[in-house]
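Chapter review: from sequence to fold.
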Amino acid sequence: MERRGPLPAKLFIGMLSGDTSLLYGMKAELEAIFGPCDMESPVWQWEHTDYYKREMGGGLKRYFVFFSGLINRGDIVRIKLRTMELERDHLNDRGGRRINLDPGYLDTARVVLVSTKDYSHRIYLGDGIYGEVTLIYSKGAFRPLPYTYPDFRTEEYRELFRQARSIYKRELTM
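The token string follows.
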């Protein structure tokens, strides 16, 4: 039997910060590294957990950028490591992050996030990075799984990823 690799995927990066100007400034930094964005979310208030409050403070905002062109899925580990470097470039005066960068990718069937944290539903990808399927596409919509983060369960996020999926499908035919 012959091995076949997966189709390329669409890269996105979710950002969290209390500083809106840092979100937009980071978009420019990310475009310099990963190429132009072809879609972005509104800047949303983010109040889904207190997980980042001690490190980053309150009043966090979420912003997603999606990149034109497609990536090899195997590159997501290298991309996560690069975004971790960018986070370290923007530390606060206490040594905590001012911005959190969450890269992932989507294809026609799923949204995948990557993390440095292991858990039962995550698969080791290499270099200390784990992957998790966060949303699955079924019956015309992205649907959450039992472990999906609360913000990714919202209709706003799922609609955003549905729109990005449409762009991805067009990119596959180019």
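Two observations follow directly from the output. The first strand starts at residue 10 and ends at 17. The CA atoms of residues 167 and 173 lie 10 Å apart.
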